[in-house]
Amino acid sequence: MVFSMYIRSFLFILIAALIVDPASRLAHGQKAPGRQGTFALTNARIVPVTSEPIDNGTLLIRADTIAGVGSSVDVPADAEVIDASGMTIYPGLFDSGTRLGLVEVGSLDETRDFSEIGDLTPEMRALTAVNPNSVNIPVTRVSGVTTVITAPTGGLFPGTAALIDLHGYTPTQMHQGRVELVVLEFPSTGRQGRWDRRSTEEIEKAADKAMEKLNEMWDEAELYVRIDSARQAEGRELEDVEYVPAMQALAPVLRGEMPLLVRANKAADIRAALEWAAERDVIDRMVLSGVAEGWRVAEAIADADVPVLAGPVLAVPTRDSDRYDKPYRNAALLQDAGVQVALRTGDAENVRNLPFHAGFAAAYGMTRENALRAVTIEPARIFGVDDRLGSIEVGKQANLFVTDGDPFETKTTVHHLFIQGYRIPIESRHTKLYGEFLNRTPGVSE
Amino acid sequence: MMSPTSTLSRALLGVLFLLVAASATATAQSDRLRGDASDDWLITGATVITVTGETLSDTDILVRDGTIADIGTGLSAPSGVETYDAAGMYVMPGIIDAHSHIAISSVNEATAPVTAEVGVGDVLDPYDINLYRALAGGVTTSHVMHGSANVIGGRNETIKHRYGHTDPAELRMEGAARTIKFALGENPTRVHGEGNNVVPRTRMGVERVIRDALTKARRYAAAKEAYENGDAAAPPEHSEQMEVLAGVLSGDVLVQCHSYRADEILMLIRVFDDFGVENYTFHHVNEGFKVAPELAKHNAGASVFSDWWAYKFEVYYSTAYNAAILTENGVTTSINSDSPELNRHLYHEAAKAQKYGGLTDRQALSLITINPARQLGIDDRVGSIDVGKDADLVVFDAHPLSVYAVAQRTYVDGVVRFDRENDPDDMRLRLDPEASVEDAFDWSSTGTRHGRCLQDVGRYGHGGTTFWQSGH
């Protein structure tokens, strides 16, 4: 009985999907394609984030842009109307630190494109290796995550991270606001995991050595920029300076044209990173990432006015002596100290859990409003794209999703999704396997 | 060179520090050890989620001698029994993690494809802080398992989170069914085939290893029986490995099998059919949903992740709807952690089966309570709130399937082993006298995932952390 009810309700959903969205009628081998148009989402609760929620409002989308928001928006005759009664519209969520698109299957080296050979490779670009057709992308976006930082890892300077939308067939189509950040893995004095059996002295020695390397590299970069600036002043060709790709990659940071994303987790390392950045005069373009022990040095981060990309929230404490809930509370404690906070999962195939990282932050001390900001408008501001993203406002890009409840609550379902104005089917490998196998035919045979 | 005076003053400082530390620890430790903690309680006014029965509003639970003595309204506390006012709170049965590697000092005896003779019960570590951290997420029972390096690994141990005891034996759940770890697929073929150049290198080889071992065990048991019946002059030479495997054949030792792909799941079902082995559970079993009708028909259990996938190739074609599909097909299903991070929020993992597949509250909570209890053969003791069962209870400030729920108290056998309001921040049971500065872990390289399924294996050809990260 229960089964047949399920079959019926499933068929109903399937048929409804076919009627409502003709695009899903087309077979697709990689990911469900979206389509642009004029859409009116009516009778919805709208949470713009940057202003008060609107009850029973209408949101109008034309091409890639939000064309109208409010309780008295006229619905144009050509608009496709989506009745969103009882539902809420939120701006698309940002994950401020992932490897999405840079790895397909975690254990297979052939599919791991986030770590090049060498410790000093800032010229490697995440944007080059992002696979727009990764199976992980649809799996992620159907949970309301529309925009992510995807970043290389490892060594000291593993490359540049990029801000991408989870829609598009080329990295360029996905790239948002041309945002790229040079990643610096700040020398760590922390133990890298339970398997890391080095003595405390060995760990410190390795960190000192890395620090030397970093300073040498940066000295060279400063020299390179001076030489290159002189070249420019004299109107000479780029070919007149030695070809050093790593230096060319760091130059925009030194010139203040590109942010520096500094990953540090242990309190002492965060402090050292702040001091280093101040000495090197790049603290104004620095963004901290990870910051597991940020709560220990929250005042110092706040004083330096450096924004942080905090997370994962769902993590274990860094020290056995720490209170069990410190990872859940870290982001809230940073906010309380006055630090600008965005959240990150640090994940790849399960970036879809970003809403739950925000939910746990909210369960353990952050207000729900601030948790929502930490995955919408705050990262948009940190990355300098708040003119286009991070909230629901007329003129902004239509990155948004429609739910039947609180966006962080576990059982909440996303019913509609738009990225760059494209209406995207709520479909992924996971939903398709559900459809195929809930009531497998043939069933058990004898 | 250090001057004699400075050495002396350093030594004095050191002694002073130790004295201060020792006195501070002595006071705090009495709390942490919970030496004189009561196992009699009256918990009042809560919403009681029994899981197997109805959810009761504004209800009291009386706990006597660590057992649930009464459930009802308007219960009064017998003299000497303390009352915990849980008005507005939700009480559910202590959570059971069917797959864990915490509180043991070794995980894998990765020296041969069959190592049934070893058991993780011999290496229990009562000081592991992960026991406490899991309590803070409502976990009261963990099935602590051998790793997945070997086709037939060692015996597992079902433990209660009696954090505070320093005797490893106190962790054991006395009377729990004996269980053993099996493992199929990539891990044993990589460790033994690729790593040591011995069978198995393929899923074909995995089947042979199991059939050969069980056949030997059947002969061993027969020879032993013949001797006991007087049909043979001498017993077979004692083999601990054969004793354990004979227990698998007789049903005394329940198989808990690491698995992923549909084909290998069907393989083990066929093998067990041939050998008459029943009452087994597949773990991880990411492709279980593809053979759910077969699992249901053979009464095989499934213990899954809520949503982990794509960390290795054999989980690439999987779905977060696994738990729901299995449940709807009538398979006894649980959600486990395999991780000291994930085990802190199994209630949240269970709720994901509502997002992915729309399970009811009762179905979802069964995934982390009565269903794992059934799979581990301990459902007469734990897994639901019933009179006569162990008083393993967790009190949440909101419905436990909500992301906003925060555990307030966790009782194990009636003893409060986690108390959000009153516990000190530092809950370690001992300090390392050798360590001048406590280690801080920088988890950035491993992310949130700390699987230990392949711990102690070494790092065959996969350089450094890669192997670890994907080691489920």
Give a description of the structure.
- The complex is a heterodimer of chains A (446) and B (472).
- By secondary structure, chain A is α/β, with parallel strands linked by helices.
- Chain A has two domains: 22-92 and 390-446, Urease, subunit C, domain 1; 93-385, Metal-dependent hydrolases (TIM Barrel), CATH 3.20.20.140.
- Helices cover 31% and strands 20% of the residues of chain A.
- Chain A has helices spanning 2-20, 126-129, 136-141, 171-174, 200-233, 245-254, 267-279, 298-304, 326-336, 354-363, 368-373, 377-382, 429-437, and strands spanning 38-46, 54-62, 65-70, 80-83, 88-91, 93-98, 145-150, 159-165, 175-185, 260-264, 286-290, 308-310, 341-343, 400-403, 414-419, 422-423.
- In chain A, strand 1 and strand 2 (54-62) form a beta hairpin.
- The longest helix of chain A has 34 residues, at 200-233.
- Chain A is globular.
- Residues 15-20 of chain A have low confidence and may be disordered.
- Chain B has 472 residues and is an alpha/beta fold.
- Chain B is 29% helix and 19% strand.
- In chain B, strands 1, 2, 3, 4, 5, 15, 16 and 17 form an eight-stranded mixed beta sheet that branches. In chain B, strands 8-10-11-12-13-14 form a six-stranded mixed beta sheet.
- In chain B, strand 13, helix 8 and strand 14 (333-335) form a beta-alpha-beta unit.
- In chain B, helix 4 (203-228) runs parallel beside helix 6 (262-275).
- The model of chain B is unreliable at 1-5, 13-28 and 459-470 (pLDDT under 50).
- At the A-B interface, helix 1, helix 10 and helix 13 of A face helix 2, helix 7, helix 8, helix 9 and helix 12 of B.
